[in-house]
Amino acid sequence: MANTVVIGMQWGDEGKGKIVDLLCPAFDAVVRFQGGDNAGHTVKFGDRHFALHLVPSGILHEGTRCVLGNGMVINPDALFRELEALAAAGVEAAGRLFVSSRAHVLMPFHAELDRAREAARGRRKIGTTSRGIGPAYEAKASRYGLRVCDLAAAGRSPRLDAAIAKVAAELDGLAAAARPTAPGDPVVEPPAASAPPTAPIDRDAEVARCRDWGERLEPYVRETAYLLNAWIDRGESLLFEGAQGTLLDLDHGTYPYVTSSSASAGGASTGTGVAPGRIDGVLGVLKAYTTRVGGGPFVTELEDETGGFLRERGNEFGTTTGRPRRCGWFDAVVARHSRMINGVGAVALTKLDVLDDLDQVRVCVAYRIDGEERRDLPATVAELERAEPVYRSVPGWGGSTVGTLEFEDLPARARDYVALLEEEVGAPVAIISTGPRREETIVRDGTPLDRLASGRLEEVRRQRNG
After folding, report:
1. How many Å apart are CA 94 and CA 353, to the nearest integer?
2. Residue 268, class by beta-carbon neighbours within 10 Å (0-12 exposed, 13-18 middle, 19+ buried)?
3. Which one of 8, 197, 378, 381 is least enclosed by Cβ atoms within 10 Å?
4. How far apart are CA 99 and CA 148, in angstroms?
5. Is 41 labeled as catalytic in the residue annotation?
6. Helix, coil or strand: residue 50
7. 161-165, 282-286, 343-347, 359-363 — which is least confidently predicted?
8. pLDDT given at position 322
């Protein structure tokens, strides 16, 4: 039995959905612990394609239980839409999906505020998904958020009144004029013109909405911390599915261009109520190059023909937003930082096949800042914006890796590239994705993956082989 966290080691979009889907046969339940419907996890197998935002990837496996933990912010309308789409595809969640009663609820006015803030930032916007995730987490931290367990009695909650008053006041202010800025704040430009006044928030409509949500969610709601710990006590294995990536973590990412939750492995405990001592290891997911969406520093970004090639060949467009992703070479400084922060024991490497046609592949092994070479990740945006990548270049492998199932069958130079990443990151590569589908994956022997997968790698391989 092992309880394992799957975490993104870059700025999200690493392919965690595929890796979780692949590993599901080795686990009894899959647990989301942070974020909301800003996540976009893509799963492909055979001729089927699923884009999941709230529901864990394990829902596609018959008999696998799925949990939305207390660390999430949940938009019930988005959840209902996702469940309806799954049902239409023949995937039933009833009896297998459980929602924490302590998870916070994302209200429509949170999304409205998110959009208004991004518009006010002009060209220096952070690049949020505008789903309301940040404002919902702000309400939680400021103690006027509503939780799933509060929905039925929302009409009697002073916290709903506090939330409406605060959001309405800020919306009116943003609509009236540009907001002043402070040093270090990414909000440095006013909007081109003042927006018209926003419509008042209808309290009665919000109360009715909450009551409806509470009734519809009731079959799924549980005290999930007790549920998860009881499953562990029975000897069952849990797979914790992270969203976003470590460089978007509120504490350890490229602040302030980050998300609003703990997107690193530590969030698995605070976001579920499962103690750190009951989690047995971490599998980190890395793309074979680097991407990010939205604003913020990106030392290895390629704004040239190669960057465009990676975007088109890798289909680098957001699952949630459809926005084109910024693309660049693999950044080992970022990967080492994530390996340390998360305690990564093994790595899943995705999209190796995207690099197949390149004559030369580069890996950033250090940064040069003000003439000094550094292998650590600087804390400030100012330092990152001055950083120059220090590259190691290796020749491309001149052959296709698409669909390869065994490591030994990869071109020799592709194997050398994997070995270089292992050396620079400091962790073994246990899984290699050679295409978007579940079937297009190498599962390597002789790595910590067997322990992380509860000794059930043969079940994982059987599923991969169909």
Report:
1. 37
2. buried
3. 197
4. 8
5. yes
6. strand
7. 161-165
8. 79
What is the C-alpha to C-alpha distance for residues 334 and 365, in angstroms, rounded to an integer?
A: 9
359 is annotated as an active-site residue: no
Beta bridge partners of 99: 68, 221
Structure tokens at 412: 């020799």
Structure tokens at 268: 């698995």
The mean pLDDT of the chain is 91
Check residue 48 and give its pLDDT: 80
| Catalytic residue (choose from 37, 41, 353, 450) | 41
**Of 13, 21, 331, 353, catalytic:** 13
With a CB cutoff of 8 Å and minimum separation 6, the contacts of 419 are: none
pLDDT given for residue 173 in this prediction: 87
- Nearest-angstrom CA–CA distance, 280 and 449: 12
Q: Could you give the dihedral angle defined by the CA atoms of residues 257, 77, 229 and 233, in that order, rounded to the nearest 10 degrees?
A: -120
CB 29 within 8 A of CB 65: yes
Where do we find the tokens 């949020």? Answer: 128
Euclidean distance between CA atoms 193 and 363, whole angstroms: 43
CA neighbor of 25 nearest in space, from 232, 241, 239: 239
Q: Would you say 260 and 133 are in contact if contact means Cβ atoms under 8 Å apart?
A: yes
Q: How far is C-alpha 123 from the geometric centre of its chain's CA atoms?
A: 24
Tokens of 449: 């993956």
With 70 as the cut, is the pLDDT of residue 42 above it?
yes
Q: How far apart are CA 243 and CA 35, in angstroms?
A: 6
With contact defined as beta carbons under 8 Å apart, do 206 and 154 qualify? yes
Q: What is the pTM of this model?
A: 0.91
The residue type at 235: G
Please write the tens of the pLDDT for every residue from 257-291.
Answer: 999 999 999 999 999 999 999 999 999 999 999 99
How many C-beta neighbours within 10 Å does residue 239 have?
A: 27
